[in-house]
Design a protein that fits this description.
CATH superfamily of the largest domain: P-loop containing nucleotide triphosphate hydrolases
Order of helices and strands: HEEEEEEEEHEHEHEHEEHHHH
Largest sheet: 6 strands, mixed
Number of domains: 3
Number of helices: 9
Shape: flat
Radius of gyration: 24 Å
Number of strands: 13
CATH topology of the largest domain: Rossmann fold
CATH class of the largest domain: Alpha Beta
Strand order of the largest sheet: 10-9-8-11-13-12
């Protein structure tokens, strides 16, 4: 268990479950109705009850969760509970509901992968950084496939401009460039985040020291790849820590990521404190320090446009969540009212 991150904090949080005779485990791979769980006795399959429940999917067990398993005679153990998550990488649900989807739990380092074999997409990098910052983990940007880039130094400078306060590393799995530095920088549970074709699985194999993760070819036309990883799973790293490979994400929607956006666009948030109006939207207000910085070239117009776009998306996501919560409260009130009416009718009929 120690190889997968078990420490004194986990032991303390698990104490009540241990007293109840339950077994500690970490979910290495979650599927519908079951999971692969790492225990002191090895990796085993455990059943997950309640998969037919249509509640908040963000509360469902996921890869990286610490769990309490209840032994079952002659059958697979049952997942009884999960411990509170220290960190969680959450995106807007692909089902377009108001719920978030947890991509990984209890992560320490989020490696945002950006391929240098394709044109840079700063907006996507900013989006992934917002998710990473919001998770509570430490983001690191890794530029992959430097051997396929004519000017990796220029690309590093550009990406550093949109990743303030974040380590930006230039790597190549072909030449080995930057891999030793990456191994030294990442720690704890490490998750690889990025689109298909960014080189996540190849990068993961270099960190693991062997070809454990499937890799695939990339289309030359647009630099996009096929999804060679179809699930999230945990693999121990030879130098300590745990690697979590994730499927390539076609869409990375924000879900309640206000704090992450503040950290991703820290320079805009800092300048906003000197705007004439405290509620300045940085669009056309007089005395706007952010617009003044755009005029002087201190902040690129593209950067401010991306900030506005992601703020709007996050606000919309939050409004949907608020609407769902109001609907849930109203449904609960209606259930209580129906129950009371049924109780009164029963009493009246007994008279």
């Amino acid at each position: 268990m120690a190889d997968y991150g078990w420490d004194e904090a986990c032991e303390h949080a698990f104490a009540p479950h241990r007293a109840a005779g339950l077994t500690p485990a970490r979910i290495a791979r979650a599927e519908r109705g079951s999971c692969q769980a790492v225990t002191d006795a090895g990796i085993l399959r455990a059943d997950i009850p309640g998969t037919a429940d249509h509640g908040d999917p963000s509360s469902a067990p996921c890869t990286g969760d610490w769990a309490a398993l209840r032994p079952a005679d002659g059958r697979a153990p049952v997942l009884h509970a999960t411990l509170e998550r220290r960190t969680a990488l959450v995106r807007s649900s692909s089902s377009r509901t108001s719920h978030g989807q947890v991509l990984a739990a209890n992560v320490d380092t989020v490696v945002v992968t950006v391929s240098l074999a394709a044109p840079l997409n700063h907006g996507r990098t900013e989006r992934m950084l917002a998710l990473a910052w919001e998770s509570g983990a430490r983001p690191v940007v890794v530029l992959t496939k430097a051997d396929a880039c004519a000017d990796p130094a220029s690309a590093e400078e550009q990406v550093s401009g949109v990743a303030a306060g974040v380590d930006v590393l230039v790597t190549s799995a072909v030449t080995g460039q930057g891999l030793d530095t990456l191994t030294a920088v990442v720690s704890g549970t490490v998750v690889l985040l990025g689109p298909s074709g960014a080189g996540k699985s190849t990068l993961g194999n270099r960190l693991l020291g062997e070809d454990r993760l499937a890799t695939g070819a990339v289309r030359e036309a647009d630099g996009k790849g096929r999804h060679t990883t179809s699930w999230r799973e945990l693999l121990p790293l030879p130098g300590g820590g745990v690697l979590m490979d994730t499927p390539g994400l076609r869409a990375i929607g924000l879900h309640d990521a206000h704090s992450g956006l503040e950290q991703t666009f820290a320079e805009i948030e800092h300048l906003a404190q000197t705007c004439r109006f405290t509620d300045c939207a940085h669009e056309n207000e007089p005395g706007c320090a952010v617009l003044a910085a755009v005029e002087t070239g201190e902040i690129p117009r593209r950067r401010l446009d991306s900030y506005h776009r992601l703020l709007r998306e996050n606000a919309y996501s939050a409004s949907r969540t608020d609407a769902r919560l109001r609907a849930d409260r109203e449904a609960t009130k209606k259930d209580i009212t129906r129950h009371l009416r049924a109780t009164y009718r029963f009493r009246e009929n007994r008279k």
